[in-house]
Amino acid sequence: xxxxxxxxxxxxxxxxxxxxxxxxxxxxxxxxxxxxxxxxxxxxxxxxxxxxxxxxxxxxxxxxxxxxxxxxxxxxxxxxxxxxxxxxxxxxxxxxxxxxxxxxxxxxxxxxxxxxxxxxxxxxxxxxxxxxxxxxxxxxxxxxxxxxxxxxxxxxxxxxxxxxxxxxxxxxxxxxxxxxxxxxxxxxxxxxxxxxxxxxxxxxxxxxxxxxxxxxxxxxxxxxxxxxxxxxxxxxxxxxxxxxxxxxxxxxxxxxxxxxxxxxxxxxxxxxxxxxxxxxxxxxxxxxxxxxxxxxxxxxxxxxxxxxxxxxxxxxxxxxxxxxxxxxxxxxxxxxxxxxxxxxxxxxxxxxxxxxxxxxxxxxxxxxxxxxxxxxxxxxxxxxxxxxxxxxxxxxxxxxxxxxxxxxxxxxxxxxxxxxxxxxxxxxxxxxxxxxxxxxxxxxxxxxxxxxxxxxxxxxxxxxxxxxxxxxxxxxxxxxxxxxxxxxxxxxxxxxxxxxxxxxxxxxxxxxxxxxxxxxxxxxxxxxxxxxxxxxxxxxxxxxxxxxxxxxxxxxxxxxxxxxxxxxxxxxxxxxxxxxxxxxxxxxxxxxxxxxxxxxxxxxxxxxxxxxxxxxxxxxxxxxxxxxxxxxxxxxxxxxxxxxxxx
Length: 647
Description:
The protein is an alpha+beta fold. It contains 14 helices and 37 strands. Strands 7, 8, 9, 10, 11, 13, 14, 15, 16, 17, 18, 19, 21 and 22 form a 14-stranded antiparallel β-sheet that branches. The longest helix is centred in the N-terminal third of the chain and has 23 residues, at 18-40. It is globular, with a radius of gyration of 27 Å.
């Protein structure tokens, strides 16, 4: 601006010398063009918190394209590489900038039936960059820059009528020594998120594939969560590979058979960036996903579920045991009961139809388990949902019988065919008003907004694994203190929390730790897995808390924590706040709980803390709160925790 003012001053004083004026205007034009040229490569978030700098090759030169991200003016993610290839076209290393759109503001305001926040509002700055390769083929890259992250996607126009998207060259560069929490890629997403600073898995140097989401501490207290969103029909999922360079994570497609015809657009690549609070509280995955396709949603209702599998494994074969869990749902005021695998073999005094009739007569809505019949052709029922005509027939039968929803298990990965199958199941379920929980499945990628009857997804190493292997026993506390910063950020997580007793392998987390988990972990259907006798024996205030606990939230706040160490999360339903906190370490710990994010004046708090040992609570009820500083100090046992209610 100083240069521009100087030029105007010269013009004013020498306005009669037209030749000089002409020269000065040429100088001014050069300054303005130079300034605009710089601005062409910048996209700044609405409040200025984040900035993306797109970095193409020099003007009229073919080369690589990258972008860098700045957080509050400081570089935090540098030289992310961009590119895509089909079996006909390749866009990598030989791209030249063709055009740049103006900056448009994208404002979205929508309601969620489930999730961490019922009313979501977001605002982004968007710009589209068009590049061409040496053959004149065009790649469009759309960037959206929010105050809590960056999203970008690719678009191509096929030249051969039908092409296959075979490779993506997006690659995120992480500085050597930087902390990262990533899980080894597994089609069921059932692995831990161990801390690493060198991009390897301890004891497994050959592992170089990593599933979403991946958390990286870019610099002191500034993080990025890497994932993807808005998988549509015809898309496959992707994961990250760092086999060539441990600090360079390239997007790898799970399927080389993505068909591109006409205009093909990729899913969004999503980078949630900021403090841990920004990460945990973000709704960016649903912000960039398609709006709801379901008009009438009155039949979609979240809630707690009694669940037979954890304690009995094959329990749904036994009508008498099934009745016990229906009775548990009645006693605990939970709206649902899940009848798990092998219900088609039910005996000992009754059939499935008898169990459903019994549940409905008690005011409990039954849910049923299905095998997807795409991966492990093990327990049944089998092959009832794969073909559309069979699926519609089954859905109609379920609807007529009074079934509220289904849990579909054992999917086969992130291929195009599997993603399309998820969508088939979801889209056909709308007509028959069936809620869906995907188990043994991929992670959420925004479908909870587009298809709000998708209530939960497993995609997590959860409490079910106490049945399968001894490894969870010693790692559960640390794992539980990592999941809120990683897996659960991107969507509902069917961890099945609240295992107070032991299954095949013991748990050594405290009762208060377990009580905190249904608050800390978000899932619209929260399956409670323990034995009826265990819930009946809990102290009356604990039973009351579990009977009243919501499973869909109006707001969510991170009050404190660090991955693997501790986490404290507050969630609001109406005017009531629920807080859960866990100690992820094997040492006694003091949790400091700030309440400045919660309006507490005139309210009371009830606390459920560790007792004299792992299997007991210390309960303090209805403690008055004031406008004055009310920060809590909670003493936790090793692997302990607490829950609190403010109302």
